[in-house]
Amino acid sequence: MGGGGGRGDRPPLSGDPWLPGGAAAGGAPDGRGGGFLLPLRGGRCPFLNRENLCEIHRILGAEATSLTCRTHPRFIEEYGPFREVSLCASCPAACDLLLGSTAPLSFLERETAEPEEPGDPWLCGLLPLRERMLRELADRPRPLQERLEAFLLLAAEAQILLDEDRTEDLAALAADWKKRETAVPPGPGLFPHALRVLSKLEALDGDWRELLRRAEEAPPAAVPETLLERLGTYFAFRYLLKAVNDGDLLGQAQFCVLMVLTAQRLTAVCGFWEAVRRLCCEVEHSEENLEALRLAFLRDAALSPGAFLCQMRS
């Protein structure tokens, strides 16, 4: 990792990392003319020194490190006139920050001297809508299940406007929306089906599917609503504006709610902190898994908005 010369937790590798072509680190051409691929040894970067600090960062500075090292554990989204940078909860330190407080999760803003680029016209409506959806999540006098339901229902109404190409009405919806009584047909809710859908995705760690299987059988564990709220806010901030790319705001909202409910479900088998970290690692770091879930929300009746509402009212 870059930053301040990120620390590792394994003994260092001997050898001079500055030999031509990364030879000391066992580097090999990547086959695409773009540089070298450097294998990890026992999960350890070969450029960490005996103090577990990055030699590239120490000698050449952060700008000389790889893109992964400069950005990890951050996600960076470019929206034209602004950029959003968020930490990924798959990183243990970032997970500590996310779950180490019960205060409402907030985000810092700052101006830069970078030239402003034009943004998508949809942003004018999606930005106030996201703010309203975040306020729904943060309305602590109400039970969390009720807040998640409002979050999803508001997204469903906004999706109608997006489908009808009425994005100019999104800001008014965000300002004036009131939750209406919604009848929900009887059904089983999301679980255990949602866990089985997750188990069919690409697994990054060998025991992930076993954790999901055990969660099917384990009784739900109690998790403070303040922490579940912070997790929902984390996902909402990260994902709702991605609707600017494909118009699928409802799918992004379903994803946010599913991640909260799944982390709560996994808590019984591995604890809440580990459930959040593992869930983020398995899903957020795989575009294929994210896309598979987006398609499942569209095609799988057992993951429909109605199934979400059944789950939250059960």
UniProtKB/TrEMBL annotation:
Q: Which GO terms describe its molecular function?
A: methyltransferase activity
Reported EC number(s) for this entry are 2.1.1.-
Biological process terms in GO annotation: methylation
**Residue numbers spanned by region Disordered:** 1-26
List keywords of the entry alphabetically: Cell projection, Cilium, Flagellum, Methyltransferase, Transferase
Catalytic EC class: transferase
Q: What's the protein here called?
A: Flagellin lysine-N-methylase
Annotated source species: Dysosmobacter welbionis
